[in-house]
Amino acid sequence: MELNNKRVLVVGLARTGVATALFCAARGAVVSATESRTEAEIGESVTKLRNAGVTLELGGHQEKTFLHQALIVPSPGVPADFPLLAAARANGVTIWSEIELAYRFLQGTLIGITGSNGKTTTTALVEHILRTAGFPTVLAGNIGTPLIAGVEDTKRNTTTVVELSSFQLELIETFRPDISLFLNLTPDHLDRHRSMEIYGAAKARIFENQTEEDAAILNADDPALTPYAPARPRGYWFSRKQRVAQGAYLHGDDIVFRHDGAEETILARGEIPLVGAHNLENVLAAVVATRLAGASAQAVSKGIRSFAGVEHRLEFVAEINGVRYYNDSKATNVDATLKALDAFTGHILIILGGKDKGSDYTVLRNPLREKAILALLIGAGAEKIERQITGSVTIERAGTLERAVESASRAARLGDVVLLAPACASFDQFENYEHRGRLFKDLVRNLQTHTAGVSAGKSAPTVSGRP
Fold it and tell me: Taking Cα atoms as reference points, which of 341, 331, 277, 317 lies closest to residue 438?
């Protein structure tokens, strides 16, 4: 599409907003950007934007800024029903998400991955398999690098693997993956989407523009996905529990790919380096996507076996005096925390809490009763979580992550697991889940240094620290 001299407004100047504004400015658009934060809060990005010719409106939004644009691109954190967007829409202004704009410049094959949980691990695994197999790849989206920032790296032979959130998908128009994956659907972001129906429909837009030439991959074990199975693209499934007509499934201890009646064994379950049943599902999904993308069975097997995992997803941090510490900061909803608990046999000291997203924490009661010995609560959601899980496990209101790690280290014994799996968003105390996970890892490593120093009879730093 032609951006030269087009009036474009970018709403929100986090990572995606900055990348979008710079992209449009580089193509000759007349770019404005509006942000509720002040210049001091935004930081060094302001200089880059001004140097690129972007007009900035900081510290708040004005309605007139929204009404006289050809295109508005809101950042994913801006709700689609934001009143000023509604006013612009009523005035005939086109409103797209960043992925819609990026799609119009993208070259090559596009693999899009969405779902409530497992998106990041599956996206990273698919890209790793294809890259290991020799495919030119771009890894982008909700995984860290905005899709629009990767456009320049794509060519006709490139495969772009993109993680997609409901926030990104709710404002698409023509966005069309060649291969789409919908991994699962569980309650999340209900503070924004207001109902499971709205949330599920936003995610299902990943299929909206696909044709008979494209492929759609869904989880056969998740009944919540059945209503969203699309008619146009070729349908494939993955399952831990049943044989599928087309796709990948677990047969005994073997992962089998089935396509047009032919079956092939990819690898044994025991060869998967990731822990947890949910990661088995992620692997099954990745098998289907990468085989359909053209990777050989041998290349897929090799890629899975060499995959080291993703930061902040059941990431092993350290073992201290026989206690293992795991960082699952990406467990930002209840279902992700349930999956994290399921990955261990028991004796878990779990850190829960953060910004509540309208979640129901009562479903954690039985797993906590069976697996956990202590729940340490932090952040704004602590009171609600305590109220809903009381009676299932011993509870301590730690308040902060620093105090939670200190308390856990004192209470844990040989063979225990200290698990950060908050079931909440991070924005009450942290910039994002990565910030929360990095701080947890720093606290654990400081604890490790302190413990080693004490063992050696030396003074050492305390557990508290900064990322």
Answer: 317
- Asked if residue 120 lies in contact with residue 279, where contact means CB atoms within 8 angstroms, the answer is no
Q: How many angstroms separate the Cα of 160 from the Cα of each of 157, 270, 446?
A: 10, 29, 38
Q: How far lies 37's CA from each of 16, 55, 78, 83, 97, in Å?
A: 15, 15, 13, 18, 20
Tell whether the model's pLDDT for residue 81 goes beyond 90. Answer: no
Task: Average the pLDDT over each of 88-102, 173-187, 305-319 and give the range with the smallest value.
Answer: 305-319
The sign one gets for the Cα dihedral 297, 300, 302, 305 is negative
- 79-84 long-range contacts, Cβ below 8 Å, gap at least 24? 79/192, 80/170, 80/171, 82/11, 84/11
Determine whether 390 is exposed, middle or buried from the number of CB atoms within 10 Å of its CB (0-12, 13-18, 19+): exposed
Asked if the model's pLDDT at residue 467 lies above 80, the reply is no
CA–CA distance, 403 with 294 (Å, rounded to integer): 49
pLDDT band (50, 70, 90) for residue 455 = low
What pLDDT is stored for residue 310 in this prediction?
82
DSSP-assigned letters across all residues of 20-36: HHHHHHHTT-EEEEEES
Provide the β-strand partners of residue 33: 10, 56
Q: Which two tokens stand for residue 54?
A: 């972007």
More confident residue, 143 or 9: 9
Using the Cα atoms of residue 447, residue 441, residue 414 and residue 365 in order, give the sign of their dihedral.
Answer: positive
Of 107, 91, 106, 94, the closest CA to residue 29 belongs to 94
pTM listed for this prediction: 0.80
Mutual angle of helices 297-305 and 277-293, in 10-degree steps? 140
In sequence order, the 6+-apart residues with CB closer than 8 A to the CB of 166 are 114, 189, 193, 199, 202, 203
**% of the chain at pLDDT higher than 90:** 83
Helix %, strand %, coil % of the chain (to 5): 40, 20, 40
- As given in the structure block, the two tokens for residue 84 are 């000023």
